[in-house]
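User: Run a structure prediction on this.
Assistant: Running it now.
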Amino acid sequence: MKDFVISNKNWTDSNIIRKIKFASIVIFLLLINFFSLTFDGIYLLRNVSFCSLALRKIRGPQTKRDQLVVYFKELGLTENDVDEIIETFPSVLDYSLEDNIKPKVELLKRMGVAQEKLVEEFLKIATINYRVCELIVEIIPGVKDGSMIKNINRRLNDRLKEKYGKTASQLIKEGREDLVREELILMSQH
């Protein structure tokens, strides 16, 4: 892919194409509005608002924050709720929506966590490796919420650090899920 330098910014071919497509859509919508314009200020304002709304719909959510707002709204939160979450836990913006947030929320749903508690429970396990969460729920009987996963993960990591000098997440990344599984089985028997 070619790189271009325009006013001290690196642009790739796909970035330029995306910008051109976006500009074309803006021009198209403005032309539509121009030809349907009357001098009624309210009508003009309504058309400008329509253009803005149409552009947002065409572009879709662009930032991680926008993606989180859309997803958490699907779970019943308001934009203010999402802003409060981001303010309290800014690291949530670092998590992948597809690889971290959605799978953990789905895991909590499968555990039977109520819809209105999903985000609260997610925040309790947000920093825990998803596979570790899955193993805890799979192996330890009676895990009902994020608090239980968090507490079990803390005890699991203490035990694994003592034995191997590593956390469950580190061992899984190294391909040693078997050690994590064994330790969880031992924990479930006590």
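DSSP finds ten helices and two strands in the chain.
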